Amino acid sequence: RSFCWEHCPQQQEEVAPENTTCLICLEPVEGRTTYGTMVCPACRHAWFHRACIQGQAISSGIFCIQCPLCRNQNCFVLEMFHMGIRIPIRPPSWEANNAYAELNERHRCCDAKECLCPGGRRVAEREGPWQLFLCCSCAAEGTHRCCSSLGSGHWVRWECDGCAGLGT
């Protein structure tokens, strides 16, 4: 739908607290709700410029758009649609180029001071002396069963020096 400036949807008129800034660009907002200044319908504490929330909506997409302050999604999205904010129905743009793909990768090498595996640090068998165990706290470091003298039990827990404290 399309509206002229006189008949476009408007938020209920509210007065912004003194010295209120946009939560996105941190610039001052007008002293009340207008076409260019909006407030979160859920918390009524998050103020932002229309252009700023539009930019956030374009990059976030429908799956991640939410109030920048209270993180309300349902009420917020409905209000933004009503106010004419375009929200694309797609995943967020930061997921499109696999920018965070390495976060989904599992650690795959032995970080023991002296790796005893004849095949090297990158060998990781499912069972046996060269089975790779990841730190049970951070999963950012690993060790072969044999390199850290871990028993032959099925449920072995291992913690790296950074999480357990050096020398434990």
**Average of per-residue pLDDT values:** 90
Using only C-alpha atoms, the radius of gyration works out to 26 Å
- Give the H and E element order: EEHHEEH
Oligomeric nature of the chains: single chain
The total domain count is 2
CATH 2nd-level architecture of the largest domain? 2-Layer Sandwich
β-strand number:
4
Q: Give the overall shape.
A: elongated
- Give me the CATH fold name of the largest domain: Herpes Virus-1
Report the sheet with the most strands, covering strand number, pairing sense and barrel closure: 2 strands, antiparallel
Name of the top-level CATH class of the largest domain: Alpha Beta
Helix content: 10-25%
Structure notes:
With 168 residues, the chain is low in regular secondary structure. It folds into two domains: 104 residues, Herpes Virus-1 (2-Layer Sandwich); 63 residues, Zinc/RING finger domain, C3HC4 (zinc finger) (Herpes Virus-1), CATH 3.30.40. The protein contains three helices and four strands; from the N terminus they run E-E-H-H-E-E-H. Strands 1-2 form a two-stranded antiparallel sheet. The longest helix is centred in the N-terminal third of the chain and has 11 residues. 16% of the residues are buried.
